[in-house]
Every structure is written in structure tokens, then in C-alpha cells.
Amino acid sequence: SQTIHQWPATLVQPVGSPLSLECTVEGTSNPNLYWYRQAAGRGLQLLFYSVGIGQISSEVPQNLSASRPQDRQFILSSKKLLLSDSGFYLCAWSSDRDDEQYFGPGTRLTVT
Amino acid sequence: DAKTTQPNSMESNEEEPVHLPCNHSTISGTDYIHWYRQLPSQGPEYVIHGLTSNVNNRMASLAIAEDRKSSTLILHRATLRDAAVYYCILRDDNYGQNFVFGPGTRLSVLP
């Protein structure tokens, strides 16, 4: 069966520091991968999605970037965090763009 | 993206059925109706989806109005573990569209 991992589970970082969140998927090949952010008390916002290695689409202009160095690895990064980057970051995968998405456990990021 | 309207919150008693409504008056003929739910401090999980006919699975039932302008997610016997935010989402499943999550309905289940 397929599983999706995210780490770390929680993170507290000062403003201006760098960020690296990692997501890996097991049990499937060539998944579509997604990064979402959920601000406190709000819905999910799609940040990036990837249909293959090195293929990244950005949904909203922002302070973050994403990379996919391996088939089942998706990384969310920032060179300098802003207070507004705080939130719950969720990685998801699907077999195809038209299929259901399966979410990871999330990383709760607090920028202080 | 087509939009949906859901109540902000609902309450239910444990072991009673729950009917979560969703209005989507501007739905197009190729939009599928998807439901996800998000338990506290977790990522969303797939519940059910359908196009025109009512759908049943082990988690829930989806009742779709004949004109498709509304639908209802039915939990047949609510448990405390069903307390979550429920999202109703429209997506054209034929064109690789992304899911757009709105604020959803926060369901509270009372013991």
C-alpha cells in the first residue's frame, strides 16, 4: 500500500531564516505531488504541484519554492521566512491528475 | 472554478444520521462532486465522489439532486471520530484541474 511521509511534524523558525520541508511517497511510482498551505482557521491553498521530476507548477506568487529531485520526493523551501509563512503545510499525492488526492500528516510551521 | 456553498458549522448527536448539504448552482455538466474531510490537526482524507447518480461507500453516501445543483453527504451513524471539517468540491475530472478547498462545514458530534 502507498504511504506518504512529511517531516518535521512541527517547526518553529525565526523570521529571515531558511526553510526546508520534505515529503516522500512510498508504494507508487511517478505520482503527482502537491504542496498546500492552511493558515489558522482557513481552507487549504494549493501552492505547487508536480507531474514529474523537475516539473513544478506554482499556483500563487509567494516567498516559497518547490523542487522534486527524485520521483517520490517533493521539497518545499524558502531562503528567508516571513511571518506570513506560518501555517500548516500539507503534501499530497495522486496517481493521476484526475484522481483522488491522499494527504500526508502535515508540518505545522510557526515563524516568530 | 465552479463554487460551492456549505453551512459553516453543524452539530449532530452520536449514533444519529447526519446530512451535510452543499449547493453548487453553477455546476457544469462535466463537474464531479467530491467530498473530503479533515480531522483536527490532520490532512484531509477522501470521503466520496460522484457525477450524477447517488453513491455509497463504507464511509458515507452521496445524494445528488436531479438537477445537480445541490448534493448531500450522509453519514448514517455519526461517531465522535466523525467530528471534522467536511469539504464539498467541484472538479472537472477530465482535464487535470486542481482541487479548490473552501472553508467547508465544521461538524461537531455530541456524545
Give an overview of the whole structure.
The complex is a heterodimer of chains A (112) and B (111). Chain A has 112 residues and is mainly β. Chain A contains no helices and eleven strands. In chain A, 33% of the residues are buried. In chain B, the strands form two sheets. A five-stranded mixed sheet of chain B has the order 1-9-8-3-4, with no helix packed on it. A four-stranded antiparallel sheet of chain B has the order 2-7-6-5, with no helix packed on it. Chain B starts with 8 loop residues before the first strand and ends with a strand. The model of chain B has no long low-confidence stretch (mean pLDDT 93). Chain B has 111 residues and is mostly beta strands. Helix content of chain B is 0%, strand content 47%. Chain B is globular, with a radius of gyration of 13 Å. Classes of the chains: A mainly beta (112), B mainly beta (111). The A-B interface holds A 34, 36, 42-46, 49, 59, 88, 90, 92, 97-98, 100-106, 108 and B 34, 41-46, 49, 87, 93-104.
In summary, what is this structure?
The complex is a heterodimer of chains A (112) and B (111). With 112 residues, chain A is mostly beta strands. Chain A is built from no helices and eleven strands.
